[in-house]
Design goal:
Elements lengths: L7 H16 L29 H15 L20
Length: 87
């Protein structure tokens, strides 16, 4: 299974947003000055304590592909070991 990575530019933007929120320059950021509010009717639930992050990501991608509401590439053919060779 190919490891999933987050684009470094997105990580940099997120850390900048959180730095601003900690300084008080940005308001209503979940985890800083606004509480997390779980959705009333979630489309998908992932128990991240019961699976590896990579497996959780694959479950999410499979869900998105199943809904058709995405712009994701199709998964590669399965390897002889049963796991996809890429996401």
């Amino acid at each position: 299974m190919r490891p999933l990575t987050w684009p470094s530019s997105a990580t940099g933007r997120a850390s900048t947003i959180y730095k601003k929120a900690r300084r008080g320059a940005r308001k209503n950021l979940t985890g800083i000055d606004s509480p997390y509010e779980p959705p009333e009717r979630a489309e998908i639930r992932i128990n991240t304590t019961a699976m590896a992050p990579e497996d959780a990501a694959h479950v999410i991608l499979a869900h998105l592909r199943g809904t058709g509401n995405h712009d994701l590439p199709r998964p590669a053919e399965k390897s002889p070991y049963g796991a996809p060779t890429q996401c």
